[in-house]
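Reviewers asked in the last cycle whether our approach scales beyond single polypeptides. To address this, we selected a multi-component target totalling 250 residues and predicted its structure end to end. The input consisted of the following lines:
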Amino acid sequence: MKNILIIGATLLLALSVMQCGAPQTSDNMITHTVYFKLKHPKGSEEEKAFIQKAVDLGAIETVHNLRSVKEVSPKNNFDFGLIMQFEDQAGYDFYNNHPDHVDFVENVWKKEVVDFMEIDYVPNE
Amino acid sequence: MKNILIIGATLLLALSVMQCGAPQTSDNMITHTVYFKLKHPKGSEEEKAFIQKAVDLGAIETVHNLRSVKEVSPKNNFDFGLIMQFEDQAGYDFYNNHPDHVDFVENVWKKEVVDFMEIDYVPNE
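The resulting structure, written as structure tokens, was:
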């Protein structure tokens, strides 16, 4: 009996500590993705600075699991992508209207991005 | 001492059973995504049948973490998405050339999809 209690407690501890990657794989969230092409030369400092500013948006409270990616398919015109998740539409709206995001769009995105496409998705169930 | 062994064994068991979501969050893989619009009416049996056939491609050995998603942004023309991951380009090529995939593309995709875009990405590091 004692051993069963120890096993149970250990499993609970393992589950709570590991959380089994749930925040990284939240398939129930809204995933917001945007793929884009910059006006900067490939590998330039300006390119790096843009990516860093985009990644910094991950600090907005409702943004989860922000990832910066390189687009590698030759079948479209984009070079980079930004992927993030929101728990719900309210969280998405909070991000969209956040001063840091608005400032980024107006003063960085619109000046440095030459082409982009936004794709958002939820599980198809 | 016996209890420590039990705790250790239980933790190992938990780790091996749960795998901590790693396969779902393999950020080092190539992520292949395709967003598309079908010719079928929304919610139709034909639509469901198409999605099922697409999801069935997840059985190909090198496909990981296949997900069927609904596109929800009004900023593009797509209604659905299919997301999958490959460990490397060889795995991607294996999928592309697999008879089940070739058959799907020729006899299902080309006949039922009216618009699509493919986007593939890897981590930007």
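Chain B touches chain A at residues 3, 6-7, 10-11, 14-15, 18, 20-22, 24-25, 27, 30-32, 35, 51, 67-73, 75-76, 78, 80-81, 117-124 (CB under 8 Å). We regard this as preliminary and will revisit it once experimental data from Aim 1 are available.
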